[in-house]
Design a protein that fits this description.
Blueprint: H1 2-113, E1 117-118, E2 124-131, E3 137-144, E4 150-160, E5 179-181, E6 186-192, E7 204-206, E8 209-214, E9 221-226, E10 235-237, E11 242-243, H2 250-254
Parallel strand pairs: 1-4
Antiparallel strand pairs: 2-3, 3-6, 4-5, 4-8, 6-11, 7-10, 8-9
């Protein structure tokens, strides 16, 4: 009985050993599976890392591309700046041209302002003064009050009072050149008012005088007439009234 129990005990121990061995083999097989699982996890981790790295590269590349685009934009802006500079030069050229045109206009205007004009009432002052010698004569003095040289053409067309006729000129008194008056200078002419021997007729006393000026053609009056004052008692004139041509000097005027 005792031996039977010992045999059963051993048999049970052997069975237990077999079960443990089987379990141990299964555990080894599972370990291989666990190892494979670790490899898969490692591979998965690697894949994730690769994806992240790839993403980072993409991001990096994207940033570079963006920078490239910015650089391109900067280049485009530079191009625009160049165009602006060119436009600036063009504007400068236009301004220079405008200045040149202005300078030319100013020069032309200055040239025109220096051009001589015809002496007449608006740019001269006329004074009428009766003379004692020669008798029955009056001296007309015309002074250039303008800023430009003026020419005294021909002779004065005088009108005493309401007279409608222009007295004749003494032809022999014509000077060799046109009387030229610089600003401030004077020209002269004398008026023979009446016959000294009393041979004149239709005499009358006049208290007003108008002097008209001739143009270059000497066919009529130009500009404004002058209205020099006469003595309060007036001056006596008759039909022998005549005038001299304008003279450069007073002596030449009173010689007639």
């Amino acid at each position: 009985m005792s031996g039977l129990r010992t045999s059963r005990t051993r048999l049970a121990a052997a069975a237990a050993t077999a079960v443990l061995a089987a379990l141990s083999l299964t555990a080894c097989n599972n370990g291989t599976g666990t190892h494979d699982e670790g490899s898969a996890a490692s591979a998965s981790t690697g894949s994730s890392s690769g994806g992240a790295s790839s993403g980072a590269d993409s991001t990096s590349t994207g940033s570079t591309g963006s920078a490239g685009s910015s650089s391109g934009s900067s280049g485009s802006t530079g191009s625009t700046g160049s165009t602006g500079s060119s436009g600036g030069k063009s504007t400068s050229g236009s301004t220079t041209g405008s200045k040149s045109t202005t300078a030319a206009s100013a020069s032309k205007a200055q040239g025109s302002s220096n051009k001589p004009v015809t002496c007449e009432g608006s740019n001269t002052r006329t004074v009428a003064a009766p003379l004692t010698r020669p008798v029955n004569h009056m001296l007309l003095t015309v002074t250039n009050t303008g800023s430009r040289t003026c020419f005294l053409y021909g002779y004065p067309a005088v009108q005493f009072g309401q007279s409608q006729s222009v007295p004749p000129v003494i032809k022999d008194s014509q000077p060799q050149a046109v009387v030229t008056l610089e600003p401030g200078q004077s020209g002269y002419a004398s008026v023979n008012l009446s016959a000294t021997d009393g041979s004149g007729s239709h005499g009358y006393t006049s208290k007003s005088l108008t002097v008209y000026f001739q143009g270059r053609s000497m066919t009529g009056s130009v500009g404004k007439g002058a209205h020099p004052s006469l003595p309060a008692k007036g001056v006596y004139v008759d039909d022998s009234l005549k005038v001299t041509y304008w003279q450069q000097s007073m002596d030449d005027a009173v010689n007639w």
